[in-house]
Amino acid sequence: MFARIVSIPLKVNAGIEFSELFEKEILPTLRRQPGFRDELLFVDPGGPEVVAISLWDSKEKAELYDRAIYPGMLKTLAKVTDGDPKVRHLQLAYSTFHKIAIGAAASDASITSQTPGVGG
Fold first, then answer.
1. Residue 20, pLDDT above cutoff 50
2. pTM of the entire structure?
């Protein structure tokens, strides 16, 4: 699994409008993308930014979204953002939520299938 982490600076008092855009425009678009698995949105109440983490089946699927769809999402959010969002990409190493282990020690499928409680 692969993660896109986007830190989005918001304009003052744009939180409600951002939430509406996120729910009505961004999230439905993400759900239609091949390889999209989940979205986590973190806010600092009253703070100047939000952090969105999208989870993808693979780096390739996340990169396809970056090239083909993300530029349009930036245009959609332009009226509520204050500056450019910062994007990072990371390979998921472990998740208790998703009950998977990936990474250097467990990326080999034979290790994952042989280790009780890993990969299920």
1. yes
2. 0.78
